[in-house]
Fold Cytoplasmic phosphatidylinositol transfer protein 1.
Amino acid sequence: MLIKEYRICMPLTTEEYRVGQLYTISKHSHQESEKGEGVEVVKNEPHEDPVHGPGQFTEKRVHLSRVQGRGVAGGGPGPFPSTWRGWGGGTGVADGRSPQCSFLPKFSIYIETKYEDNCGDSENIFRSDKILGDHEVSFLDIAFDEIPERYYRSLEGADPCGASQVIRDILLIGHRQAFAWVDEWCDMSLEEVRAFETQMQVATNQKLGSQHP
């Protein structure tokens, strides 16, 4: 099992980050989706987690019409759906993301995130024995780190190292975009950004031709 830890410092409080994250994911998913390809929202509803308490459960399907990369020889026609299920809590609470890929049944990723008001210098931020020991910690710089031009259109292979590079690029572009759009969401409350999220969910699913509202 390969464990990677990415730390991203943002010029925001954790409360501001939560709003910006929800806004950015919703808007970016809508922009990058088109008929038959993109991010379909299956569920997005309040959920009571037995450990973390109240939060939001989300299930999404990422549809790719063509997959390219070392892990799928020569690529091929799609669609290739990947299902992501996750739970998100309030400020400072960890999120879980568990994708399942229909074309790579033995390939899985688990992602946890946590937000804290510091400079990324927490020791063992997840308070977990699972990530102690030999694992790489990478600091991502939203201002200066480079991102491949079409990072989201390719699968860099089924090997863990290739997948971790894709995740790194997605995290970097997402956080950079959140700050670039700060003027659009900085005055929004959590309730307002949730309403925007619902609006974008409906519009994106319609754009994809999804049966889910």
Remarks:
- Residues 160-180 form the longest helix (21 residues).
- The first strand starts at residue 4 and ends at 8.
- The domain at 4-208 is CATH 3.30.530.20 (Alpha-D-Glucose-1,6-Bisphosphate; Chain A, domain 4).
